[in-house]
TrEMBL record:
UniProt keyword Calcium, yes or no: yes
Family note: Belongs to the aldose epimerase family.
Gene field: mro_1
Subunit structure: Monomer.
Name assigned to this protein: Aldose 1-epimerase
Gene3D superfamilies: 2.70.98.10
Length: 179
């Protein structure tokens, strides 16, 4: 089994750090994976349309987190995997995040079939950052390209089995710019 990812935190605000609630996020996905109380995917692929998970059009993270939704309440924010579609081995756009005041923008491209958006729901003032600042809830976000979490237990998810002699290859690009 092999399902590598990257849990780097991003915050596009100018320093000193502020929360990421005004960051506008867009995810190129029509479905996401709902989770159970332990934040493990249930196996369902749920359509994003009409829900706070519909980020096909850019929306401020904070606006969406205010919506009453059982999935957001379970995770304390976003901690879900979005379905990007079948992996073809070619780089494709997965996400765009804009911090509107500074114009800083992050684009994510990947060959992976999924992307997990985590909105720093469990940051609690213990993680120290630049200048000794202690990061609080929602002061960072992660965009983790990957195969679907819990894939070994969900036969209809893309396989994470790597057989002897097979080669694993994946590519993710984090591209920064100013608008």
């Amino acid at each position: 089994m092999l399902n590598l990812t990257n849990h780097t935190y991003f915050n596009l605000n100018p320093h000193p750090v502020h929360d990421v609630l005004r960051h506008e996020v867009a995810l190129h996905a029509r479905q996401y994976l709902p989770v159970d109380r332990t934040l493990i995917p249930t196996g369902e692929l749920r359509e994003v349309a009409g829900s706070p998970f519909d980020l096909r059009t850019p929306a401020p993270i904070g606006t969406r987190l205010q919506e009453q939704d059982e999935q957001l309440q379970l995770a304390g924010g976003y901690d879900h995997c979005w379905v990007l579609g079948e992996s073809t081995g070619l780089l494709r756009p997965a996400a765009t995040v804009l911090e509107p005041a500074s114009g800083r923008q992050l684009e994510v491209l990947t060959t992976e079939p999924g992307i997990q958006l985590y909105t720093g729901n469990f940051l609690n003032g213990r993680l120290q950052g630049k200048g000794g600042i202690l990061y609080q809830k929602h002061w960072g976000f992660c965009l983790e390209t990957q195969h679907f979490p819990d894939a070994p237990n969900q036969p209809h998810f893309p396989s994470v089995v790597l057989e002897p002699g097979q080669t694993y290859q994946s590519q993710t690009v984090y591209r920064f710019s100013v608008k």
